[in-house]
């Protein structure tokens, strides 16, 4: 990777960490992280987690906000049934009235993976800039206070009530809420494509000129707004190297959503500082490990990282980040940009290619490329997975393989539950929700979508869309109680509790 690209990445990393700028009229920020009809387009992963908790790049949107807001306050607005898992420090579930002298900074789950953009939104809101950012008529972000934020909350609440009823028919996407109606007195100050920036108070439009210029510049960023789950992989490829560099010198703590450890020291507990290797450290610490490229592009996120002799770390095209207590066994090849969360285990002979980001406690083998996984993925045997987006607590049986390219090199269609949709992409692999299991030798077509707690086995190739709680794929239903019992065993083996709130999520998704 060239020096100019490295410098650009480090500049962007510094921008994302800049404190709130400006001096006059600084106000406190209350973050409001919300999801709306966008969650339907983030299926199947969003069946079990809020859409804003699906990782894109190295982090989920929630984690990016956490990294910025420090000890600030925040609200979670999500679908009924999922919010109970939101026991996060400094976050509250549901709405509370606006606070004097506090600006509500609304961020929708459709905002793309740019920590620097979040920092810019925070700076604008802290300096008293009120705005509404829409894309295709849908909310992306807004900074509001007083009656304006209350009106937006009312619009969101009306949507949430309608969504709860419409959710009983999962075979269709939901309608969005009219995010612009609360801003009827405002004026449009900028537009790029289908993106529009509104200022609620016309008299203040001139004061927001600096923010308007910044906002207009953002519109050139790829995947600034995420439209659907199949954009997670290319968006990750666009930002992963920068995410790793942003971590240098910063805390390596991860904040998994909804997980309760059985002990006091889970693998994600504590914090450390992401530290780049030096050539002498690499030689002395890991004898027999081959680093192709600049050793400083191997970034370590805490204690306990073990790389065995015979491993190749190729950082010529991007950095490799190894979280605390990660173990890489002999004969493996890891190619950057790549990020492995705390407690990951890469088994002997594995090949992990650039554009891959794995969460906490993943155990992987075989061939994996351009794939994003949440937490505790089990893929411990040979088989190819590429251009995939995978939830948590998934077990892929030995030799499970997914196609990510059609034989005719055509655009891939994906069915998220409401009919096939043309993704416009030539590469889309497996999309799998939490608690999916596949049998040994399972073969999966391009763009296959596996629903929450689906158990895949049988003769031949499964259909491209398998509903949640499927037992096989011939219409048999996986009993909810049995699925919950299995999940309790699986999570217990990784020192996590299956709580009553998790059980309610299972029953909500199953329609019990």
Written overview of the protein:
- This protein is of the alpha/beta class and 512 residues long.
- It folds into two domains: 3-227, no CATH class; 229-396, no CATH class.
- Strands 3-2-1-4-6-5-8-7 form an eight-stranded mixed sheet, with helices on both faces.
- α1 (3-17) crosses α6.
- The longest helix has 21 residues, at 146-166.
- The chain is globular.
Looking at the structure, what is the overall shape?
globular
Order of strands across the widest beta sheet?
A: 3-2-1-4-6-5-8-7
- Helical run tally: 9
Catalogue the unreliable spans.
1-24
Helix content: 10-25%
**How large is the radius of gyration?**
22 Å
How would you characterize the largest beta sheet?
Answer: 8 strands, mixed
> What's the end-to-end separation, in Å?
52 Å
SSE class: alpha/beta
Tell me the total number of β-strands.
38
Integer tally of domains: 2
Descriptors:
512 residues; alpha/beta; 2 domains; six-stranded parallel sheet; disordered N terminus
Give me a quick take on this structure.
The chain has 512 residues and is α/β, with parallel strands linked by helices.
Give the arrangement of secondary structure elements.
Layout (H helix, E strand, L loop, with lengths): L2 H15 L10 E7 L26 H9 L3 E5 L13 E3 L8 E7 L6 H12 L4 E5 L2 E7 L1 H21 L20 E6 L2 E5 L9 H10 L13 H16 L12 E2 L13 E2 L2 H7 L4 E3 L5 E4 L4 E2 L4 E3 L5 E4 L3 E2 L4 E3 L2 E3 L4 E2 L4 E2 L3 E3 L4 E2 L2 E3 L2 E2 L4 E2 L4 E3 L2 E2 L4 E2 L4 E2 L10 E3 L4 E3 L8 E2 L4 E2 L4 E2 L4 E2 L4 E2 L8 E2 L13 H14 L2 E2 L2 H11 L2
């Amino acid at each position: 990777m060239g020096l100019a690209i490295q410098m650009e990445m480090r500049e962007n990393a510094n921008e994302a960490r800049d404190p709130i700028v400006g001096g006059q009229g600084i106000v406190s920020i209350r973050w409001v992280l919300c999801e709306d009809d966008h969650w339907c387009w983030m299926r199947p992963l969003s069946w079990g987690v809020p859409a804003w908790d699906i990782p894109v790049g190295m982090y989920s949107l929630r984690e990016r906000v956490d990294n910025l807001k420090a000890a600030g306050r925040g609200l979670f607005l999500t679908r009924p049934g999922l919010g109970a898992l939101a026991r996060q420090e400094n976050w509250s579930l549901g709405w509370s009235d606006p606070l004097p002298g506090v600006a509500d900074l609304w961020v929708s789950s459709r905002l793309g993976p740019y920590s620097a953009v979040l920092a810019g939104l925070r700076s604008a809101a802290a300096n008293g800039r009120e705005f509404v950012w829409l894309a295709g008529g849908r909310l992306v972000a807004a900074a509001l206070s007083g009656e304006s934020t209350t009106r937006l909350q009312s619009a969101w609440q009306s949507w949430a009530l309608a969504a709860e009823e419409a959710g009983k028919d999962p075979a269709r996407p939901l309608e969005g809420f009219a995010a612009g109606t609360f801003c009827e007195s405002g004026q449009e100050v900028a537009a790029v494509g289908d993106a529009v920036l509104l200022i609620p108070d016309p008299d203040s439009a001139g004061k927001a000129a600096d923010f308007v210029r910044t906002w207009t510049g953002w519109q050139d960023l790829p995947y600034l707004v995420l439209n659907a789950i199949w954009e997670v992989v290319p968006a990750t490829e666009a930002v992963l190297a920068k995410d790793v560099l942003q971590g240098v010198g910063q805390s390596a703590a991860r904040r998994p959503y909804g997980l309760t450890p059985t002990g006091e020291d889970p693998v994600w507990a504590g914090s450390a500082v992401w530290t780049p290797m030096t050539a002498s450290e690499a030689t002395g610490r890991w004898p027999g490990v081959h680093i192709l490229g600049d050793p400083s592009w191997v970034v370590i996120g805490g204690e306990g990282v073990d790389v065995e002799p015979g491993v190749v770390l190729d950082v010529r095209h991007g950095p490799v980040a190894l979280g605390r207590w990660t173990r890489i066994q002999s004969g493996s090849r890891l190619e950057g940009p790549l990020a492995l969360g705390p407690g990951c285990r890469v088994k002997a002979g594995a090949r992990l290619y650039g554009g891959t980001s794995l969460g906490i406690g993943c155990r992987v083998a075989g061939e994996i490329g351009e794939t994003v996984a949440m937490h505790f993925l089990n893929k411990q045997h040979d088989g190819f997975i590429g251009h995939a987006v995978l939830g948590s607590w998934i077990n892929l049986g030995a030799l499970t393989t997914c196609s990510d390219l059609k034989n005719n090199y055509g655009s891939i269609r994906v069915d998220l539950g409401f009919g096939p949709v043309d993704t416009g992409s030539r590469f889309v692999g497996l999309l799998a929700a939490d608690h999916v299991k596949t049998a040994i030798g399972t073969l999966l077509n391009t763009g296959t979508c596996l629903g929450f707690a689906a158990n895949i086995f049988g003769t031949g190739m499964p259909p491209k869309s398998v509903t949640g709680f499927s037992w096989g794929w011939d219409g048999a239903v996986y009993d909810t109680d049995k699925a919950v019992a299995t999940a309790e065993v699986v999570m217990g083996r990784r020192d996590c509790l299956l709580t009553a709130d998790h059980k309610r999520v299972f029953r909500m998704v199953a329609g019990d």
